[in-house]
Design goal:
homodimer; about 260 residues; alpha/beta; Rossmann fold; 2 domains; six-stranded parallel beta sheet
Chain lengths: ~260, ~260
């Protein structure tokens, strides 16, 4: 049964075309989530003219004016409240969010630069990594975004079969592992399976109705569905915080060894 | 024995700090390759002020002024010679290149937005995908960049053990598969194993000497080393161009099934 508690949901999306499939999924999400009583906040990155490139202009005061080291400056800016206002606004939205949905077209098997630049800049040292000044003590299941849920909604040009278990592109969830595991679970979010729309350049009315229906179901289940069972760093599977214990997924290597079966 | 034929090598790199480890690897590459008689071309994306965001400004004439569909407009702009001059310059460098090396810091297990935006914009429809107007007939081993070699050189904040076969982040080459396989091999490049520099924020002189030596060896071997043995689409392993034949890597799924063993 879907949760009836009212929650805050942040939608972040990266497509400039108002009639795109990506934007259509955004509209459906707003309708569906608000109809459930949730509060929706939107970050329309193209519409906002989001600055995608992480550079020296991100640091208004510098711990080292001579040499730009991103980790040091990100940590300093975050700790001293001297981040740029646009980054602070996005972090405030994240703090208020119970769930975050990232919607984007899959370009070269990853995020558009616009979306990647939102991560690069907003995922600050001290917040999304280096949490509590404790190095990597808290990561993968714990950290600055613990307690939040996350989901990707991607539109894909190609057919589903190319992304299937033995499809030529590789399985979609493995291609997205750097994002789901490495970017969202890393700072503590619980990540739901990806909502994928294939053949997104050619969607007729009949197929769109089916996509909308499936999307509404995913959204209604946002706070109840089982997240991807990524192993937490500090739950016992990585005794040294670096490598899987021998007894965990014995003999297996690769990305899927980091998911409980 | 290293090849003695003179070649053209394009270095593309994304880091704004002149004293960064990334930039240091660029300098070593220029020296080493030129000493071998090769011609080196540099795309310093931060230095060039590269426009990372792919948007409506990329299309000076539009096949459809009403609705921005990237694939359609990219194909039209490429076919009609109406791409933006910055994109045309990068494609000219690529056409002239026998090998391309992408150098970047690994941010959230992928490219910085700056580098991703170089791919998003330069990898045009008709050139890097949709080659010869034939849909996906030519991809993975064939296409607009066939005959070229490619290599990634990444600097990584964390320790190597976290990226090992059972390391908590996942194995580095699997995290990079969307780039090596999906971005470079897709349009036909032969991709060499990644040159990775770990713990890149703290490199003392002794370790830097060892890194430099290993990097020079990789560079000298650029045209001779065995590429990653990705399976070609049209070599027989994907009879329907979508899924591995049952007899190929039988019973295996996931990214590694697409590499010959």
């Amino acid at each position: 049964m879907p949760s009836t508690t009212r929650k805050n949901v942040l939608l972040v999306y990266a497509h400039p075309e108002p009639t795109s499939a990506t934007r259509h999924l955004v509209e459906i999400a707003i309708q569906t989530l608000e109809a459930q009583g949730h509060t929706v906040t939107l970050s329309d990155l193209y519409g906002m003219g989001w600055k995608a490139v992480f550079d020296a202009n991100d640091f208004r005061t510098r711990v080292n004016p001579e040499r730009l080291a991103f980790i040091d400056e990100s940590g300093h800016a975050y700790a001293t409240g001297s981040q740029t206002p646009d980054v602070e606004r996005e972090q405030a939205k994240l703090r208020a969010a119970d769930a975050v949905i990232l919607l984007f077209p899959l370009w070269w098997f990853g995020m558009p630069a616009m979306m990647k630049g939102w991560i690069d800049r907003v995922w600050a040292f001290g917040l999304a990594y280096g949490y509590q000044g404790a190095g990597n003590a808290y990561r993968y299941g714990e950290g600055g975004f613990a307690g939040k849920r996350a989901m990707l909604a991607v539109t894909v040009g190609g057919p589903q079969i190319d992304y299937s278990a033995r499809g030529i592109n590789g399985p979609l969830e493995q291609l997205l592992f750097p994002i789901t595991h490495g970017t969202l679970f890393f700072p503590g979010m619980q990540v739901l399976p990806t909502f994928a729309t294939y053949n997104a350049a050619r969607i007729d009315a009949g197929r769109m109705a089916a996509i909308e229906s499936a999307w509404r179901t995913s959204l209604r289940d946002l706070f109840d569905a089982a997240p991807i069972a990524f192993r937490t760093q500090n739950g016992g599977d990585y005794p040294d915080r670096h490598v899987l214990a021998e007894a965990v997924a014995p003999g297996r290597t690769g990305l899927e060894a980091h998911i409980k079966t």
